[in-house]
Design brief:
Layout lengths: L1 E10 L2 E12 L4 E5 L4 H4 L1 H12 L7 E7 L11 H11 L11 E3 L2 E2 L5 E2 L4 H10 L4 E5 L3 H4 L6 E5 L2 H9 L31 H13 L3 E4 L6 H5 L11 H13 L15 E2 L7 H5 E2 L4 E2 L1 H4 L4 E4 L7 H5 L2 H6 L1 E5 L4 E5 L3 E6 L18 H8 L4 H5 L3 E4 L5 H5 L7 H18 L14 H7 L4 H14 L3 H17 L7 H8 L9
Parallel strand pairs: 3-4, 5-8, 8-9, 10-17, 10-18, 11-14, 14-17
Antiparallel strand pairs: 1-2, 2-4, 6-7, 12-13, 15-16
């Protein structure tokens, strides 16, 4: 007999429909899996045999051949346990093959037959819906995640016996319904700007970054509040739209960070990798590529604390994603792309000792040491950082003062209003979400300058040595400042403020 069921495999964050064909024939008892399975798929033979036995089903004492199609696509992970087990039951006529219908099966089996959660369920469910699969059977802990896809029947089962009951007794396992998507809480968004004393210039830069999606770096001595400011950026960013939340949730599903959590990621991601992180950890990689930190920060914030402590070659990995909003990871037999539209926020000391330019403590670094310190940040990388802000230490009277600054909510309201103006402008350009996404053709259309503004910008290019890319960044920031002020056109005051954030392109 021949049993056929559907499953799926992941390529990056995209899902590919996989056929699981099971043939039982004469020969020595064995289960043979073909179709480029990895070690985890090969080991499913033992898990499936034990699960069938402990669930009360028989394992045919014959040769069982399992073929995973398409044969040239690498299959990985334990999610094929359940479809292989169901395929064996169908091929051995313990379950009628006609009952399988258009179900798609996913799940890891324990030896006692219980189902364990797997990764990548959301993108697989979305792909199943597009390919006319009517129902998907997943472990109970993955059911709420799969149910985010509308128009697809989702069945969450605790064990293999429940799966068989579902097939033989329709209605015994009710489909999962979500009146309201369950929220997966992964980030702490309670940090408030009111905790920050002083630093009006840095707070203004945060507001501009939130409104326009601009990259930002804080430079200042230890204890000046750089990290404190950066960690409060997610709290003033506009909330994710439903479409953006689905994108983020798919990335976290593929990365295996939704296991046992389920639901929709509603908060803007905030990722803060350690400065010892490798290039693959930052951009993604592995034998079977998985999302890195920049993709986990998609639609959110990537914070590089003490940026100059990162290896230069690791930082250079950021250049292409910052420009394109995606990253491509290539291997010998595979090339996958991951989304990476994030806001980069970085902090660093101005020199190795940390006190260059400080009003309270003298710097002990030589010019050559400072030059070597800043050499880790290449010119092309700094060009891509729109807002470059000096943060000075607070005066004693500012530290002891009990008054607090403006809270996050009013700042967030202004940032949302600024983005709304930009989105209205981009209503015929769905790919544009904020001003930072604009390309050259958009700048020509929406960032026209009057003579005074143009003369001001040309003077800054000569004096600061701004590149063409850095000049484009100044125009984008000018457009955001104009949006925050409610102005239709860019004026000299907007350009002047934007230029003021380009004064640390290279510190010596």
């Amino acid at each position: 007999m021949l049993g056929r069921v559907w499953s799926a495999s992941l390529v990056g964050i995209e899902a590919v429909k996989v056929g699981v064909e099971v043939d039982i024939s004469g020969g020595l008892p064995a289960i043979v899996v073909v179709g480029l399975p990895d070690t985890a798929v090969q080991e499913s033979r033992e898990r499936v045999k034990a699960a069938l036995k402990h669930t009360g089903f028989g394992v045919p004492m014959r040769r069982i051949a399992v073929n995973l199609t398409p044969a040239d696509l690498r299959k990985e992970g334990p999610s094929f346990d359940l479809p292989i087990a169901v395929g064996i039951l169908a091929a051995s006529e313990q379950v009628s093959p006609e009952l399988l219908g258009d179900y798609l099966f996913l799940g890891e089996l324990s030896l006692d037959g219980s189902l364990r959660p797997v990764t990548g369920v959301l993108p697989i469910a979305a792909a199943a819906k597009q390919q006319d699969i009517t129902a998907i059977v997943v472990p109970e802990e993955n059911a709420k995640e799969a149910a985010l896809v509308e128009g697809l029947e989702v069945y969450g089962c605790q064990n293999l016996a429940e799966v068989v009951d579902l097939l033989e007794k329709p209605g015994s396992v009710p489909p999962v319904r979500l009146d309201e998507p369950v929220e997966a809480k992964l980030f702490d968004s309670k940090l408030d700007l009111k905790d920050v004393k002083g630093q009006a210039h840095a707070r203004r830069a945060l507001e501009i970054a939130a409104a326009g999606g601009h990259n930002l770096i804080f430079v200042g001595p230890p204890g000046s509040g750089k990290t404190m400011l950066a960690r409060r950026l997610p709290g003033i960013l506009p909330p994710l739209t439903f479409a953006e939340a689905l994108e983020v949730t798919q990335v976290y599903s593929v990365a295996g960070l939704l296991k046992g959590r389920g639901g929709l990621v509603r908060d803007r991601p905030f990722r803060s990798p350690h400065h010892s992180a490798s290039g693959p950890a930052l951009v993604g990689g592995g034998t079977y590529p998985r999302p890195g930190e920049i993709s986990l920060a998609h639609r959110g914030v990537l914070f590089l604390d003490e940026m100059t402590e990162f290896k230069r070659d690791v930082l250079e990995y950021l250049r292409q994603p910052l420009e394109d909003g995606s990253v491509t990871v290539s291997r010998t037999k595979l090339s996958v792309s991951f989304p990476a539209q994030f806001t980069l926020v970085a902090s660093t000391n101005p020199c190795p000792c940390g006190y260059f330019g400080d009003a309270f403590q003298a710097c002990t670094c030589s010019p050559s040491k400072r030059e070597q310190y800043w050499a880790k940040l290449s010119g092309p990388l700094m060009d891509r950082i729109d807002l470059q802000v000096m943060v000075n230490r607070l005066k004693p009277e500012e530290i002891t003062r009990q008054t607090t600054g403006e809270g996050s909510e009013p700042v967030r309201a202004r940032a949302i209003a600024g983005r709304d103006r930009a989105r209205h402008r981009f209503r015929d350009e769905p790919a544009l979400q904020c001003n930072a996404d604009m390309r050259s053709e958009h700048l020509r259309r929406w960032c026209e300058l009057d003579d005074s503004s143009r003369n001001l910008l040309e003077g800054a290019i000569r004096k600061l040595g701004l590149s063409a890319r850095a000049t484009d960044r100044v125009l984008k920031v000018s457009r955001t400042i104009a949006d925050l002020n409610g102005d239709e056109n860019i004026r000299p005051m907007h350009v002047a403020e934007a230029i003021g954030y380009r004064t640390i392109d290279r510190m010596q």
